What does this fold into?
Amino acid sequence: MERCLLCFEELPAADSWFSFLFPKWVRPVCRTCDEKLERIQGDVCECCGRPLSSLSATYKKGALCLDCVRWGQEGEVLEKNRSLYMYNDEMKEVMNRFKFRGDAVLIHAFANEFREIFRQYFSSYEVVPIPLSTERLEERGFNQAELLAMLLPVPMLSCSLVRVHTEKQSQKTRKQRIAGSSPFSFLSSDRFDSKNILLIDDIYTTGKTVRQLAVMFRERGAKNVSSLTLCRS
It folds into this structure.
């Protein structure tokens, strides 16, 4: 028998509706664990993908959340972000195992849905995983954004984007993240004329990182820049 990738309990042969429709494919997450994950559904902010149902009228304006209204006042460069899950307590534990304890196989728990959201919103985009610094990559052993990008049915776009080593984002406050300077640069004169660029990352927090990169890609000719993340805070 297969075991749940999250709790390691045995998986029944037909644990979900998906198993009935596709009997040769067993979902790698049990029903109990699956129900703890908070999927993003219903009306979302047109720009960042934040669920609007959880926001009071004070924190949204039309089809946008207040954060994206403020980004727009500065000159919005990101076409849209979409994420699969909210970054709740269960997902925090999953991401800790995935990123910081080296349990990279967990990525397969979300593979089918991650591909589906790509097909739904971004099928005409070229994929760029957000890089780690050399130091962080050596420490972790893999780039979580690159593993997510490898799940998608398109090759990754080759470019010279690199990241300078800085303090971990998880150790910064929201204010520090928004105020921080960009740690990214291109090593060569890459051009992306008329391309639709999709940035891949694990977590959307303030949106500062993807917007820093959106500016850089647009300056080099990109037509649109969007982002796809596994979860969002």
